[in-house]
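Onboarding guide, step 5: your first structure request.
Type a short instruction followed by the sequence, for example:

Predict the 3D structure of this protein.
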Amino acid sequence: MKSANATVRMGLALVSLLVPVSAIAQGAIPNVFNPNETELQKQSHFLTFVGSYIPETATSGRAYYNAIDPNQTKRTFTQWLKYAGFIGQESDWQPYGQQTILTGQPTGAGAYGPNIINTDSHAIVLNAADLGFVRNQFVRCKPSCSARNPIIFTYLENYPVAPFAASGSKFGSGGSSYPTQAEATAAIKSAIQRPLGALNPATGTGDGGVCPGPDVCVERIADVAFEWSAGENAATNSTTRFGQLLAYIFSHNGGGITETIAFPDGAIGKSVINGVPVLDYSTGQQRAIQGPLSAADPFADPFAPNLDGLGFKQMPGVCLVCHGGKPSRLTSTGAYPRKGMIDGFRLLPLDNRNLMFPDVPFPGIGDFTLGAQEPQIKKYNQAVLATVAAQPQRDDQGVIRPPHIAEVIRGWYSTGGNYSNDTTMSSPTQNGGWIPKGWRESPNGTAPAGSEKVYGDVVGPSCRSCHFNRELSLDFGTSANFHQESDLLQLSLLAECKQNNPDPNAKFMPLAHLTFQRFWEASDGSKTLTGPYQLGHTVDELANAFNQNGVAGYCATNP
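The system replies with structure tokens like these:
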């Protein structure tokens, strides 16, 4: 029997405390948790759909996996890696220790072998804007990423930052939601070495043993695999493409390591894991994880990631909130509809403004600074663009334009500065200051005065990561689209007005808990992640953009 602490650490990757405050204060995070709310309400404030939400359970998660993997050939991470072509055979995979990473998808002698990853591109970053993991990520295309309508495979390994966080950082416990450069560098250095066990301060990496607790554990938390293909049910020559998603939990104990799509047997019978109750979202009831696992049943309860430290939310919905699409109700026969095809589900680009990188090369390990990784990041983003229907469409404001995500990826790599209309993607580096046409002010466009600052300070760092993959009517691709009549202000600002008596059923924007905290902390105007992009008074900027007298003025009329 495996230790639950050793096998289910994903829930403690980001655990932070929100402290009620009695007055509106710059940089203060409003309290959103009502002492009388249920556990389900507490878990549902973030990373769940606003509006019509279809609750997901172990049953619906199992049905989704059966739809996209009907032959049960991808139930372990090594099975998927071999299927996608990242490794030559399952025995080549080594679950820990630094790898040999061959980019450009080489062929011939030496292209595969023990501990070799054969990929088109590779990047390792601290995803500091929304979930707070170090992400070691790869993309591979068939036949190539430059081919028309390629099949695309991408995966990422998630590593924690908390063990490297100084006192006072929410990446550890309490304090700021913005990691320091030193924290980012240390966490990425450890992750590229793919450690096991708890942090060894002398080496800055793992001690190789079984972790005594999640706050000191530096080993991998989980792996997430994406496919852009016709699916297992389609003919081999099908030109259809849609997004598919699998999540594998990394389980390590003294007896070995497993990476499967199911909760490990150390969690069987547990109704509380690392202090967080496991809920059946269809009823709001706490429940024990079902089991036991057996050879006849390749997995019992599908792994439900705890991405924000607040609750275990089921696949695929917990990822769809940012990757696009919505969960579906099962058919009368218990099947996931349309064989797992979910409209609007796409990959997400690497947005350098919202990431962090090491500030120095690592002798004997490699150079993973932003400058060194720019070529690989561009290749990754070019593959992401292939998953987007990038042709211009008419939005709800009557503007004919490409989707926000497509316009921005092309704009990042345009030549000619922030207002360039070049779409050749000929620049080798990403320009994080590039502004979409619908946000440009005079003399470069027709957006209202102040729009460019709102885009740079609010939309870019706090909104677009998820709204990129929403439908055109909600993708925030223009200032007019952003300002359409909606509940945006209520979702974004009402938390401040109601913090002394929060609504137990409220959902909040930004939709990720960490992004929500960063959004409010940046209201003091002194926060930054990568490069020169210092955030302004974000909360008041948003309120003023909607003709409110700051957040205080909004709360005065919305008590």
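Each response can be followed by summary notes, for example: The first helix runs from residue 4 to 7.
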